[in-house]
Amino acid sequence: MPSTHNYLMPHDQKGADISESASETRQYISFTIGQEEYGVDIMAVREIKAWTDTTHLPNTPEYMRGVLNLRGVIVPIFDLRCRFGMGLTQATNMHVVVIVQVGQRMVGMLVDAVSDILTIAKDEIQQMPQMERNIDDEYLSGLVTVKDRLVALLDADLLFNQQSIENGVVLGKAALGDK
Amino acid sequence: MPQEFDLNQFKVTYFEECQDLLETAEEQLSILQAQLGDVDVETLHAIFRCVHSIKGGAGAFNFTGLIEFSHILETTLDLLREGKIQPDHNLVDCLIRSNDVLGTLVHMAQKEIEPSPDIWKTIASELEKYSGLNITTSAASLNEEDVSPLLASVAGYNLTAEEEEEQGWGLFLENILPPSSQMSSEMEKDDQGWGLFGDEPEIENNTETAHCPELTKPHYRIRFVPEPHLLQFANEPLLLARELKTLGDCIAHVDVSRLPKLADIAPDVAYLSWSFDLYTDRSIADIEEVFEFVIDDCQLDIQLVDNREQIEVTSDVADSPQDEALADLAGDIQPRESTPVPRPQKEQSLSKTENKKVDMAANGNVSAPMVSSIRVELDRVDRLVNMVGELVITQSMLKQQADELANNAGLRMTQGFEELNARTRELQESVMAIRMQPVKSVFARMPRLVRELSAKLGKKIDLITSGEMTEVDKTVIEQLMDPLTHMIRNSVDHGVETPDERRAAGKPERARIYLRAEHKSGRIQIEVSDDGRGIDRDRVLAKAEEKGLIERDVEIDAQAIDNLIFTPGFSTANSVSDVSGRGVGMDVVRRNIISLGGRISVFSTPGEGARFLMSLPLTLAVLDGMIVKCGAEKYIIPLTSIIESIHPVREEIKSLMNGGTLVSVRGQYIRIVNLHHLFNLKDAITDPAESLVVIVETERYGYVGIMVDELLGQQQVVIKSLEENYDPIAGVAAATILGNGKVALILDVDGLAEMEHGAEKRRKNKSLQRQVFLTGE
């Protein structure tokens, strides 16, 4: 069986960020969940596909929507709306799954719709204001305003790595049961 | 051969090769140890060849530390095999450690770390003690020829007698000289390449005395014309010539007429041919035997000639001036009268001490079986395995669609599908076979483990292995290493008694540990057994009670007590030793085996020994499964663990106080696993009397019944890792893709039984843990 510790990979891109000058641009794919718009680095996105029925995994958190077969690879799908505490997505085939690469793993994010490809210069990205939000700040790498829309940039590495570790711990405990 | 000389590519090959060589050396060293007192010189040759090949490559890449150390080791080995020093226990021990150091140095070279001499200096001086002592005591008795390599080694000069003899795989140029001797090493390169040009002043130093043919013996004229592809089958005319020479006096004449221009020469094509004048009493059959291995790849003509006939001394002179020059050159180097050995075409060159090695080289190389194998990256094989897996899925998808077609069309297609099915299964099996490897690679490491541990513990143990060539998937082999190491350790540490105890028990002092592998009903069975004291049931029981693993005063049979050693947290070792008993124990072994889809069981007879049996699947890529439905979900239960499935009637079902359920099957009560409960499934049948119970065999809990809604059918499925992209899930072993393209989970029956067990316990304890468990929060 392959190692399950891949998610502990360092975030290579962090180092690259520092060396980039302020005017350098990056592309983000933006998607919507309800009224909110989020962006994720285009380089991490492997594929975008319509929602299909998944196979439910037992005893997993609610936002874990099960796994699907992506050309022979088993990919877990996370419901971002639910992950952000906004309730379960009533998924239809109009909903979209964004498959992203996180470290060595591939995960899918269930979102409402993909809206745009944004080209954003580094100096356009604002730091997250310290205020109460649905998502813990640490999963967001910044905010940008694009044509009056506010787009929150997600750091997929953090979002899923953190979660994987937590899941691992919880499940590890569960697996050990009563010991 | 690649057009570009990409050193890195060769390095990769070299290190792979080194790994093999180190393992072979290790294996041979243990054989050597077993042979002490009656050493087979072939073993020494084999070890020598390994070290020599490692050194050869190291020279090509200039890994100085590695070269120096391997050279010292090689010198000692050389003395050993020439019988100048006698192997004893200490020396062999020293050699084994040297091999480890060699491994370390190779590893460092691979990591491009320059090793500090401290790593090998100690052991090197130990080795030199053996070889050095010898020089002072016996040098006087050596003849000039034999002294030279010794002197060379004493002076730190890096060439030994064997240097020129390419033992390895011919990829590397033997560039062993230190940089200061660059000139001569350059020459050596040429020499290794062609051996045709005037780079061999040494040849004139040939100490071999010229033999005048005894004209009284029958004279055979042998014409030997190799087919161009002869060399590609690892045949070497030089060796044949040497072999011929052992039959009698032999004069070789080279025919260079087929030699093309230098630019047109392909390195692996045989251009030269020979005629030999052989004076021998042997029969034609003996001569023919020399050519036995090449007879299909050459034209051979053996004739008895009249003794009085003048020996023909002119070699066929080529037409072109260049070739003529070559021929002359060859003539200069190799005066026909004095050198009864033909010119080799490539790689080999004559050296002053070479001839005495003739027998060795001939045995080692000519009789070696031709292995037609290639090295392939595992990635490529895996890709193939994956693709075939996809093919199987696609096929079952098509089949499903065909089945839905109108009757007539469907029927006709069914036949086609059957055929296709047979073919794909065949294809799949062939592809899987590529990944199969003999378990030898794992077994080979065990003798050493036993040796070291028994020495440490003061026990006398023989390890007897069998079935090393049993083949199993590479992944299984990799995963087998740890559990097997642990079990052997366990046997040595706990199972086998000290010699005193054994004597007292009336057993032979030397204990035996058996390691066996065999194929059994589509699985591989590995057995580790010893003739030690067996499992101490009283102690196991006491320990288990002490740790609260079982309840006190419960009747428990002997087999069950033995099986307690697999319980997590169980380790009977009184003290934590560095041999075994570090808190992890047989439960880890069991877990590892189970994660491979295997089973382990123990049979112990007090005072007579313990026997561990492991049964593992041959491959981890496919499995035969039963598709079951539970609620809206489909799961797969591995067919190998299914015993039967039953529809229980209500009277057979008993509810326990703790919420657990039992079902009586022919008088035997079997615990029911509530799949829908454990997995929190909606819409599943909750009444055991209405459901179907699939009885499966588990490692720890014996038979348990998994409650499902219905059976959907049997299918071979391709195992997909869930953990590639997600975390392990309790009760789920892996995933697969069904014919409709959907993912289905493969159940881990042992995990489920454990979950059920835990759930019952929790229900009993009214603990909050259950909530944690079910919500995952």
UniProtKB/TrEMBL annotation, chain A:
Pfam families: CheW. SUPFAM superfamilies: CheW-like (SSF50341). Residues 1-21 are annotated as: Disordered. PANTHER family: CHEMOTAXIS PROTEIN CHEW, CHEMOTAXIS SENSOR HISTIDINE KINASE-RELATED. PROSITE patterns: CHEW. It comes from Terasakiella brassicae. GO terms for biological process: chemotaxis; signal transduction. This is Chemotaxis protein CheW. InterPro entries: CheW, CheW-like_dom_sf, CheW-lke_dom. It comes from the Bacteria. Coiled coil: none annotated. One of its GO terms (cellular component) is cytosol. Residues 25-165 form the CheW-like domain.
TrEMBL record, chain B:
The keyword Lipoprotein does not apply. Its EC number is 2.7.13.3. It catalyses: ATP + protein L-histidine = ADP + protein N-phospho-L-histidine. InterPro entries: Bact_Chemotaxis_CheA (IPR051315), CheA-like_dim (IPR004105), CheA-like_homodim_sf (IPR037006), CheW-like_dom_sf (IPR036061), CheW-lke_dom (IPR002545), HATPase_C_sf (IPR036890), HATPase_dom (IPR003594), His_kinase_dom (IPR005467). Residues 369-620 form the Histidine kinase domain. CDD domains: CheA_reg (cd00731), HATPase_CheA-like (cd16916), HPT (cd00088). Residues 622-758 form the CheW-like domain. The modification Phosphohistidine is found at residue 52. The gene is cheAI. Residues 331-360 are annotated as: Disordered. One of its GO terms (biological process) is chemotaxis. Keywords: ATP-binding, Chemotaxis, Coiled coil, Kinase, Nucleotide-binding, Phosphoprotein, Transferase, Two-component regulatory system. It comes from Terasakiella brassicae. Residues 15-42 form a coiled coil. Involved in the transmission of sensory signals from the chemoreceptors to the flagellar motors. CheA is autophosphorylated; it can transfer its phosphate group to either CheB or CheY. One of its GO terms (molecular function) is ATP binding. It comes from the Bacteria. Residues 3-109 form the HPt domain. Pfam families: CheW (PF01584), H-kinase_dim (PF02895), HATPase_c (PF02518), Hpt (PF01627). The keyword Ion transport does not apply. GO terms for cellular component: cytoplasm. It is an enzyme of class 2 (transferase). This is Chemotaxis protein CheA.
